[in-house]
Amino acid sequence: MDHFQRTENPATLVPMLRVNQPGELLAAVPYMLGFHPSDSLVVIGVKDGHLQFAARADLPACEHEALASLAAVTARQHPDTTILIGYGTEAAVTPRLATAREALAGRKIPVLEALRLTDGRYYSYDCPEASCCPPEGRVHEPDTTVAAAEATLAGQVALASRAELEASVEPVPEPGMKEASGTAETRMIARLAKPGGRKGLIMEGAALLEVALSRYYTGGTLTTDETAWLLGLLLFTEIRDAAWRLIELRPQDQHLPLWADVTRRAERGRGAPAATLLAYAAYTAGQGSLAVVALDRALADDPEYALADLLGQAIASGIPPRKLRTPRARRIKGKRRIRRRETRA
């Protein structure tokens, strides 16, 4: 299941798109998810007139238990109403939309509209006006919509499929990375053998994180040797947790480029920490689908990587990113607010 929350940090998410018509809403969904869905059931949560939440599930998997879980996740977001969208044939979509509606009703969540998109035409299950929603459907032309234009202007990207999104976190062979990884391992072993070696490595890791964030924020990248060294340092939970806290405290556009690049450049079996950090950065930025595929990469590299498993459970349960922040990060943000008030006073 893929989903995202819009309300956590709206400035970093899809802009407030004009979706007062079904065609505009359908054009916005791929930018909300990060890819064009197919054979899918999507639930859109609406709160205070704004798109708040979106959840997607594979249509073939949408049986009673899966839809009950989808309704439970939606309920945790407390939407005012929802919109259901099925992507697929009428035979596949209609019964599952009906079951989804029942599951949401069981949670006392109203459904404002139910739509189906099939072969470039969309159909409404709720609009009785033939002049508005004819039985033969309406042609869907997303490229002509305001929603698509605004999303594109804002730099949002909708990949062709979920498979393409999955491919974006897969390892990309890099000349010299294997040798650089070996050198980093030898260097680390030598450092650990010295007195105070671990403490020194943790301090060096914290400094490298700052360098990396600054470099990616300005459009740069790490060298092969620096990437291999960072991947090695992330094996220390202190350094990984420091990176996690930085995600909590700084804008996500500083973190996504870094962790997306490091995840891709990590050799198979070495990417679990970086991919988990990418997943957390993506989730806090409202890119739930990217978070899910990043966690898949993390667990493929290390099936027992506990933090990836815990984050996956939190996302699947619909726990908002703000509730995943560490107590230390919340205290720091609180102190900053107090200082700002004192300064203004």
Structure in a nutshell:
Helices cover 52% and strands 12% of the residues. It has 345 residues and is an alpha+beta fold.
Write a structural description.
- Helix content is 52%, strand content 12%.
- It has 345 residues and is an alpha+beta fold.
- It has two domains: 2-160, Cytidine Deaminase, domain 2; 177-340, no CATH class.
- Strands 1-3-2-4-5-6-7 form a seven-stranded mixed sheet, sandwiched between helices.
- The termini are far apart.
- The relative contact order is 0.12.
Class by helix and strand content?
Answer: alpha+beta
Work out the count of structural domains: 2
Biggest beta sheet attributes: 7 strands, mixed
Principal-axes geometry comes out as elongated
User: Number of DSSP strands?
Assistant: 7
Radius of gyration: 22 Å
What are the key terms here?
single chain; 345 residues; alpha+beta; Cytidine Deaminase, domain 2; 2 domains; seven-stranded mixed sheet; 14 helices; disordered C terminus
